[in-house]
Write a structure and sequence with these properties.
13% strand; 5-stranded parallel beta sheet; 4-stranded antiparallel beta sheet; 14 helices; alpha/beta
């Protein structure tokens, strides 16, 4: 499956400023902000969309967050290999197709293409591997066979379930109590009350084909996989384990990331699935989590079609720290638009002096290295822009651009903002 075009990322900031500080992130499993020590390349897996109603601002916040992590790693001198999945066959997608009378394949393809367009507009770095569940069916089936050979799955009326007892490290990712896990399991797609399961928390890995559902041939019968095993198979195949970082929204901590890790650790007990786990806080609207089931969605495509500059959307997302839960408001978008205008004006007018531009640029990179503190990075650019505008009351002029002969402080700031924050101030 193809991804989307990569945004332009100027290299001048690294050439002028040197390598950035090493990235530290809050690791969900340990409950601490820890320095990342990625391999070469750094290996990142971020769970993707189920394409039936893309792309709302909760999605965009997540992918913007891990876009920042990739930029921070690269500026610290690391190559990055990034993999993201698309759950292009699953219950919610099939249910939406039945409700609308649309072919489920056509629905998934259309919404995936819309997602690509939204990500490109928001200057999100694409994954090196963008893998759909359907195209990944052979490797998913192979993983389930490995789990079966390890005695980690069992049958219930022909369906296969993963036994959480197979992973001695079960519950270490989420750190939740059993009662807390049970409360979330059914809410997030589980079936704790199914008769025949050994443990209410055991997760479905293969479902025999039901009437009117698609199915794939396998050694376990014709059917389709569960959700969690899909990500495990794709991550193990295209990245290997342990991952340097597993990412996603905070609603994926349990059961999805817990189960994905368990599947991998059940077949390879001596290797953790990931060294670290980072999670984007939930984005709400009107006091409730933005979700498809509730229908309180703000779609990136709707904003773009309404004439909103994608850079403004991105700045609104970056104004909130990734680990916080926050509500989307029109005021955030208005503030982001004003901020964008100030920054563009400051870059066109030049800067107060080169030393201050370097200090501001270093502050941007240090802020992102410190647990992706994007709000603090924005404040550093704000301060520089205020000085630039105060120092220049004359007409705005065009900056030289990276690689131009007149490279100066305004060019440096424009390059740093584009390379570190993904916002192009020259267009």
């Amino acid at each position: 499956m193809r991804a989307w075009p990569a945004p332009t990322i100027p290299a001048t900031s690294v050439e002028v400023l040197g390598t950035a500080p090493e990235l530290s992130l809050y690791d969900t499993r340990s409950g601490q902000v820890r320095a990342t020590h990625p391999g070469e390349p750094a290996r990142l897996y971020v769970c993707g969309i189920t394409p039936y109603d893309a792309t709302h601002l909760g999605h965009s916040a997540t992918y913007t967050t891990f876009d920042l992590a990739i930029r921070a790693w690269r500026q610290a001198g690391h190559d990055v290999r990034y993999v993201q999945n698309v759950t292009d066959v699953d219950d919610p997608l099939l249910e939406r197709a039945r409700e609308t009378g649309e072919d489920w394949v056509a629905l998934a393809e259309r919404e995936t293409e819309l997602f690509r367009a939204d990500m490109a507009a928001l200057s999100v770095i694409p994954p090196d591997v963008f893998a759909g569940a359907v195209e990944s069916m052979p490797i998913i089936i192979d993983l389930i066979a490995e789990l079966r050979d390890r005695g980690a799955v069992y049958a219930v009326d022909g369906d296969l379930y993963y036994s959480v007892a197979a992973d001695p490290h079960f519950a270490e990712v989420s750190g939740l109590s059993r009662d807390e896990m049970l409360a979330l399991f059914d809410e997030r797609g589980g079936d704790s009350d199914r008769v025949g399961k050994r443990d209410p928390l055991d997760a479905l890995v293969w479902q025999q084909q039901r009437a009117d559902d698609p199915g794939w041939a396998s050694p376990f019968g014709t059917g389709r996989p569960g959700w969690h095993v899909e990500c495990t198979a794709i991550a193990r195949t295209h990245l290997g384990t342990p991952l340097d970082l597993q990412g996603g929204g905070s609603d994926l901590i349990f059961p999805h990331h817990e189960m994905s890790a368990g599947h991998a650790q059940a077949v390879d007990p001596d290797r953790p699935f990931a060294h670290a786990y980072a999670h984007q806080g939930m984005v709400g609207l009107g006091g409730h989590k933005m979700s498809k089931s509730r229908g309180n969605l703000v779609l990136v495509s709707t904003l773009r079609q309404g004439g909103v500059d994608p850079r403004t959307i991105r700045l609104a997302l970056l104004s909130q720290h990734y680990r916080t839960e926050w509500d989307w408001t029109d005021g955030l978008l208005d503030d982001a638009g004003k901020r964008l205008s100030r920054w563009i004006d400051a870059v066109r007018r030049g800067g107060p002096d080169h030393t201050r531009a370097v200090a501001a640029a270093q502050s941007v990179r240090a802020s992102l290295a410190d647990d992706l503190d994007a709000p603090r990075a924005l404040e550093a650019v704000d301060a520089w822009a205020a000085e630039a505008l105060a120092a220049s009351s004359g007409p705005a002029v065009a900056v030289g651009g990276s690689g131009g002969s007149a490279f100066g402080e305004a060019d440096l700031m424009a390059d740093v903002v584009q390379a570190s924050l993904g916002v192009d101030l020259r267009v």
